[in-house]
Amino acid sequence: ETKINDKKDNPFFYEEIAKIIQNIDVQIPCVYFNIKKYETILRNDEKKDDKELNALFKILSPQHLLKIVTPNDSNSLNEKFYKELLHIIGLEEAREGTKNIIRRKKENRNKASLIELTIDAIETEDTLHRLPDQSIYGTNKEERIFNVALELCIIWINRILFLKLLEGQLITYHQGNKEYCFLNTETINDFDELFKLFHKVLAVNLKDRTEAIKSKYSRVPYLNSSLFEISELEDQTTKINTLDNSLQLELINTTILKDIKKNTNKLPTLDYLFKFLDAYDFASEGTEALQEDNKTIINASVLGKVFEKINGYKDGSIYTPA
Fold it and tell me: Fewer Cβ within 10 Å of end Cβ, the chain: N or C?
């Protein structure tokens, strides 16, 4: 063992192994395959036969050959996804005493982040007085506006992430047909259209939709869920269609949108959110399928962990005024 550690070059390793194997008088089990049998599948663009490559892919993977632990468990919290989502919302994670908290950014606040857009809408419409009990949201006006805005942002992000999972399932069910994509700025070009998607499409039975909605969203199903009903808090304060569409949000330095960042450092808020989500794979249910585009998988389990952390603000966060 000491000699091997001292000489870690491959020739020495194989020479030593050869000596050991020569003295072993037993049959050594091994895996054999003819790579040419997979040539057609490897070279064509048909995804339907890719599943035949799963076993081959696993055998040749570093995780199998070198017993490397997979760093990206599709069921664990993806920190990169979580941090950039917080950035788009306009929040940051910080350490206060012995616990981590989520708070409004202290520095470099961007007016185009979701939380700042929502705060601006609440202040502009002066809707805080409509709440029957303002005290549950804080001890002063600034604190109350922040907590109301944050709760609204969580409602909206929850809906959007749920829809991203739905979109992924529709694409998978229809054999990768991208015509079932609807969470993009080609379809949803502003917050008004997003409001329609929430409350005039998903919350309305297909037969009861307007002709214009039927035509544009023919592939989007009806969801019999209270998630897409206008919440009591929205009704009392503000809705997503009141947010300003004209502002642009700076991309986080560690953004997954590397190619876009080469050309621009800003995107309209909704466009940034949709492109950010589209950079991840919401269509795969696990790691069995081969990921030709090498997107990181985000599934319901991951999103559950993300919201578990974000919702923790109710118990752990400390509001810090400007």
Answer: N
